Amino acid sequence: MNYVQKLFLFVLLALTISLQGQANKDTDDVLINALKDEMDRSLTELQIDEEPPPYFLSYTVNEVSMSVVQSILGGSADSNHSTNRNLSVNVRVGDRQLDNTNFEGSGGGMFGLGGLLGGLMGGGSFPLTDSYDELRRVIWMSTDAAYKEAVSSLAAKKTALEQQPGLERANDFNEEEPFEYVSEQELAAIDIDRVKAFANELSAVLKGHPELQETSTTVSYVTNKRTYIDSDGNFHRLESSLCSVRTQASAQADDGALVNDYLTAYGNNCEDLYNEVEELKQRHEELIASILEFKNAEHVRAYTGPVLITDEATADFFSQVLGSRAGAVPLPVSEFGGMGGMMGQLQNPFMDKIDTRVLPRFLSVVNDPTIREHEGVSLMGSYVVDSEGMPARRTELIKDGRLLTLLTTRAPTKELNKSTGSNRTGTPLPGNLFVSSSEGMTEEELKEELLVLVEDNALDYGIVIKRFSDIGSVALGSGMDGIMAVTQAMMGGGIPLLPTLHAYKVDMDGNEVPIRPITVTSFSDSQLKDIVAVSDTRRAYNVSTPFSASTLMSAMLGSLGGLGGAFGSPGFLGVVAPDVLLEELSFQGGGTGHPRLPIVAHPASE
């Protein structure tokens, strides 16, 4: 299984953990009793000498079962199944005004980032046994380690604050009304032989095409049982499941340039996807046609001018733009002076723009994870309760172009001190974004307006983007170059956008010519106000979450054990949005250094 497939399964697992399913509450459950009993004991007995005891504890247990089948050209290539549990422990010492969290310094753990997480021990292995004594033992050891880390971070944070008198900062943790939720649906069983047959049927569509160098179809069924409990009275038991298909294929252009493409499909269980097999086979045919089309795509070295973003790219655009701007995260206290430190470079610029205009006056945006579908499309960003036990809520973010508020967790900022129920595994992220407009054009009118702007700028052509890359396709194509482009945009204060996947030159006669992936060189917040027009219709898509500051850090630190994952794993969100016409964007094309073509033709060519 290659890097991209592993990355996709990681994202899939994160999505399943964040999705809300249903489960039966059992007051005699051994796991719940073990968690409650060890929490009670820790709150009354856990203390080092004169150090403060915990004032808050939370435990999260995820029990994940994953079945994965890989098929290549109609034949099974790999199959595996795994089940595991992990325990995350969050210990806070001090009080809600000042505790061990949100600190950057030598007392904060690896690279000075541990204090940002507080006493969080994330992703630790947890036994599958229902032995009460063994569960208590592991909870006890994990809580002990988290408490010691929390005490160390608090001491270092207090020292840093003493050296910076008068530093203004928000409280570290807010109080919320307790919330309990228990879902009530049983998970569907998996028939692995049927999954294999399904994967083989889909991957067989790609047979007989020697132009395709590598192909694979992966079908995964993931279930998760999540238990959350904290000392503030929040509790939830959830069960969730997700069946997915991802098919990826690649080819080489005549100059050796790699051409990569993929398709994905999701269902709450595999039966949902079995019922769509003919539609999925047609999408596989379209995947082949797309690769062959872009195999002969033109190379654009650079472009600055008007851009029309349409089809799936509209969801990619709004998820990347607003996903990286929608969350309010307090600046950490830094041992290195002032607020922010290293993490301050990743601070969301929208935090200083509340009550100001950030979009054209005709656009409004709402985040609503409580809505499960839009016009027959299931929205994967839906959930009932977030990672901190807070209920999902509708939040009006932007009205008539003006920023009203941002999404929050239980870590308040100076302006926002209540959670919007938006903690998605460690960071405030949208669930389902609904972008609406008070005025719009037909698709034909939008394209005509694009060509008017092209003519006004004395250009030979404009650009239409129909799909942006996802992290998997970036890794398969440009690898770290694409990820570093996103990183540089964020560190420079710009809005990160992934490279294009399906983009076209449009001449003055309206003819579209495919071009190779291009990357936005710079895109600033001010350019959002320069959106010229949008369509009068909206489409619903499910897309990968964008690189917020925390998910970016997760990607960069993911190889360093549990630290990266604790920042917040990538998931998915639903986006309902219109097409967008931008007056100006600047792009650059990829390099010219490509792998050499095979010396001998594909054996199927004979």
**Main sheet overview:** 11 strands, mixed
What is the distance, rounded to the nearest whole angstrom, between the alpha carbons of the first and last residues? 29 Å
User: Percent of residues in beta strands?
Assistant: 25-35%
- In which range does the helix fraction lie? 25-40%
Alpha-carbon Rg, integer:
25 Å
Count every beta strand, where a strand is a DSSP E run of 2 or more residues.
22
Could you name the ranges where pLDDT drops below 50 across 5 or more consecutive residues? Answer: 20-28, 107-114, 547-570
Mean pLDDT: 85
State the shape: globular
What's the number of helices? 12
Which structural class best describes the helix and strand composition? alpha+beta
Provide a concise account of the structure shown.
This protein is an alpha+beta fold. 26% of the residues lie in helices and 31% in strands.
Secondary structure elements and their pairing?
Elements (H helix, E strand, L loop, with lengths): L2 H16 L11 H16 L8 E19 L2 E19 L9 E2 L14 E8 L5 H31 L17 E3 L9 H12 L10 E17 L4 E18 L5 E10 L2 H5 L2 H19 L6 E8 L2 H12 L9 E2 L28 E5 L5 E2 L2 E2 L16 E5 L2 E2 L28 E6 L5 H14 L4 E8 L2 H6 L3 H12 L8 E8 L4 E4 L2 E5 L8 E14 L4 H9 L4 H5 L5 E18 L17
Parallel strand pairs: 3-10, 5-7, 9-17, 16-22
Antiparallel strand pairs: 1-2, 1-6, 2-4, 6-7, 7-8, 9-22, 11-14, 11-16, 12-13, 14-15, 17-18, 18-19, 20-22, 21-22
Helix pairs in contact: 2-3, 4-6
